[in-house]
Each structure stands twice: as structure tokens, then as C-alpha cells.
Amino acid sequence: MYAQMVESGQAGTSDQDKAFQDKIDRNVRIEPRDWMPEGYRKTLIRQISQHAHSEIVGQLPEGNWITRAPSLQRKAILLAKVQDEAGHGLYLYCAAETLGVSRDELTEQLLSGKAKYSSIFNYPTLTWADVGMIGWLVDGAAIMNQVPLQRCSYGPYSRAMIRVCKEESFHQRQGFDIVRALVEGTEDQKAMAQDALNRWWWPAIMMFGPPDADSTHSEQSMKWGIKLNSNDELRQKFVDQTVPQAEWLGLTLPDPDLKWNEDRQSYDFGTPDWDEFFNVIKGNGICNRERLDARNKAWDDGAWFREGLMAHAEKTTKQNIAAE
Ligand SMILES: [Fe+2]
Ligand SMILES: [Fe+2]
Asked: How many CA atoms lie within 13 Å of 163's alpha carbon, on the beta-carbon side?
């Protein structure tokens, strides 16, 4: 079936293209069996799989603190949160599979270092406060990106986003609550929170991607309804939402250019270090190698289990055939 779809995709006539765009303009969801241009399929496979990889790799910085969470309650909450991220990854791999790519292919691209994932996860989690910052800022930025995608044109992706966003808002609250507990604690704990904020603020701001002027693929993706807001638009929304929260917590955002702009009714803010951003994307972040090594080790360690499952599936299939 997939081969057929790909074939028909390549043979797209201008009528097909027009009918497809018309559907998107009328807000009709595109479903796996519908005709779609090859570029749409490829862009979506890239976008959904990068998202899935980010969820999977995103477990690692926080997983680092599960055994060292400061109380049983915090440990239980963090475990549930990290398990949610695994679920998001699997859910999204399934959405990508409806476009004719296999989960094994996508896993192979991640493990070989060919595929990209969000560069935020290549930063280390040095203290418990970092776990709070990830929830508050990183999940907060993720929600900002993902809420509009609930209305994206591809049915399986938009439906996945509805569920994912519900869980992400729990993640953000648990992060904010970790930071709240720290700022209400001792001077040392408050200082730990401030130090973590200083390290996570700019990487979080960069999660929205390069400035609109330098962002490739954006225009076509917007026309296709798989990108609904520009990078700069979402970044501004995130800053406007987060500044009052930081003020409430009594923490200082590490940006001397940050100030309220009465005319725009928005905050002005400084420019992130985009050289650092592109350097981390290229594989030179603090933890790029560690993250890929961890995923490869998990894959290799699980080989016996996958083999066992396959052997069991084969055996039961044979038994079922014999019984018929
Ligand atoms: Fe997630
Ligand atoms: Fe999350």
C-alpha cells in the first residue's frame, strides 16, 4: 500500500496538487491513505521523526537524576514524567510510520548520528535545580511549539499532539514546582536555582529555532499547514509568558536587554549566541556524544529481548497455523 502511495505521490498532477492545497486551505485533515505530494510526506517524516527522537533522547538528562531525586515523592513524579516522554516518542514513531517509513529505519538514523533531535538535550544536568529548569522552561517551550500543532494538517500528527500536550502541561507544572520549592528554601537552594536558570535560559530561547530570516523550509511548511507560527512569534510568546513567572519566583533572567516594551505590549530581549546553537547542532555540544552512546548502549543491551520477542511471535504463529 505504501509503495502505491509513494508512486501516486510522484505522479502528482497539477490537479492533484491543487485539490490537495484546497483541502488544507479548507482545514480538512490529510489522512495516511490520501494522496499527498512527496515533499509533504518527506517534510512530515523529517519533522515527526525529529520530534520523536527528541522525546527519546530527552529522557536522558532527567533520567540522570531519578536515583538522586531529593524525596520519594519527587522520585515518583520524575519517574512518571520520564515515562511520559518515552510514550511520546513511541506515539510519534507510530505517526511517522503511517507515512511509509519503519520505526527500525528511524531508530537506525538516530543511532548512527544521521538524524537530528532537539539540541537542548545536549546540555548536562549538573544539579537537581536543572531538573526543575527542564520542566519549567524546556517543557514550557515545547508546549508553546506543540499547542498549535494540534491543528496541523496531518491527522495522525495533530491527534498525537492533543494527547502529548496534556501531559506536557503536567511536566511544566512539576518543573515549576521544583523551582518554587528551591526558591522558598535556604539561600544555597535559591542560589542553585539561579545558577541553573542562568545556564538553561538561552538554550531554551534557542529551542524555537533560528530567527525567521534564517529559517529554511518555513514558507512551504506554513502553506502546507505543518508549521503554524513562525519561530520568532513563538519565541516572543514564550518570553512574555515566562518573565512574570521568573519575577514571581524572585529569580533574575540572565539577559541585560530584557525590558517591557509599552508600545508592543511585549518584552524586548537580547540575541542568543547562534554560533553556539549551530555548533551544538553540528554535534559539538557538551553531551552530544554521551547521549548517542547511551542510546546505542540501550539498543545493544536490548538485542536479546527483541530476539526473544521475535522467536516467541514466530512460535505462536506456527502453533496457531497448526491448530487451524
Ligand atoms: Fe514530551
Ligand atoms: Fe515533557
From this structure: 13
Residues forming a β-bridge with 266: 261
How remote is the CA of residue 22 from the centroid of ligand 2, in Å?
34
Residue range(s) defining the domain that contains residue 222: 15-285
Say which CATH number the domain at 189 has. 1.20.1260.10
Closest-approaching ligand to the CA atom of 89: 1
State the 10-residue block means of pLDDT for the chain, 324 residues long: 43 84 95 96 96 96 95 97 97 97 96 93 96 98 96 96 94 97 98 98 96 83 93 97 98 98 97 92 91 95 96 93 85
Question: Phi and psi dihedrals of 301, rounded to 5?
Answer: -65, -25
The secondary element (H helix, E strand) that includes residue 266 is strand 266-268
Burial group, residue 29, by CB count within 10 angstroms (0-12, 13-18, 19+): middle
CA of 122 relative to ligand 1 center, distance in Å: 16
